[in-house]
Amino acid sequence: MRKTYQNVRFVWTAAIGIIAIAVMAANHFSGITQAHRAVIVDEQVIASSCALQTFSPVANLSAGTLPVAVAAADSNADGKLDFAVANFGSNNVSVYLNSGTGSFPAPINYPAGTNPSAIVAADFNADGKMDLAVTESGADQVLILLGNGKGGFTAAGSFFVGANPNGIVAGDFNADGRLDLAVANTDTDDISILFGNGNGTFRPTPNISVGSTPLALVVADFNGDGKPDLGVANYFDDDLSILLGNGNGGFVAAPKVEYRHQSHFTRGGRLQRRRQD
Ligand SMILES: [Ca+2]
Ligand SMILES: [Ca+2]
Ligand SMILES: [Ca+2]
Ligand SMILES: [Ca+2]
Fold this sequence. Notes:
The protein contains one helix and 22 strands. The protein is about 10% helix and about 45% strand. The protein is mainly beta. Residues about 5-35 and about 260-275 have low confidence and may be disordered. It has one helix at about 10-30; strands at about 1-5, 35-40, 45-50, 60, 65-75, 80-85, 90-95, 110, 115-120, 130-135, 140-145, 155-160, 165-170, 180-185, 190-195, 200-205, 210, 215-220, 230-235, 240-245, 250-260, 275. The longest helix has 22 residues, at about 10-30. A hairpin with a 4-residue loop joins strand 10 and strand 11 (about 140-145). The strands form six sheets. Strands 13, 14, 15, 16 and 17 form a five-stranded antiparallel sheet that branches. The chain has a four-stranded antiparallel sheet with strand order 5-6-7-8. A four-stranded antiparallel sheet has the order 9-10-11-12, with no helix packed on it. The chain binds calcium ion (CA) (4 copies). One calcium ion (CA) binds near residues 173, 174, 180 and 195.
């Protein structure tokens, strides 16, 4: 039984939020004052090279069908941030290479399994070239696309996670110097941690239960102990699960953070989940 949604726009909204966080993080780490930003609206990608305090779209770029998530990274090592978009409906990833002048040539599309729903960019095989990890929500696995450093990508394996994965982040959770993955499994109400082997392959660990219908997650050091933690948005529980990392790849649940609203429109229809047997 797979949970589906009456309207996937909420995923777009989540993606936009993630984009904002990603841009802020990119600015934080690079110290830049200009940022290339991308937002998905109605199957278009709106790209903007703009000042930090403004958000002025300069181009609408065609995407695939039902684009739901985006990741920014320099995939061709020219010092300009590019981005990759997961197209849920057309089962591919569109990679847009940044010209550096605010324009983006037509994307190159790469097959991405079944219903790609979330994407993260990082160097998973430690060759200095940016790679991509994509959740396949329709196949319950994560697809790894290894970058060639010139903006091209090659599928390099898939790794099973829980059911209906819809969120993914990367971090070194067991402090072995190799990037790992954390995946939010919407239908099994848990998180999959995949330990990286440093060569683009991953090995599974026991899933970690969270709240109902986890949709998105973020990695950060919430308690300042130098070990990466996870924050997970539980769609149907109206709360967040905070998982504190122990530095060995394990996580301990902190008390949940609830965000309840008097006007709880999300239950009313637009974001309502339905089940299909
Ligand atoms: Ca680039
Ligand atoms: Ca790489
Ligand atoms: Ca690791
Ligand atoms: Ca921590």
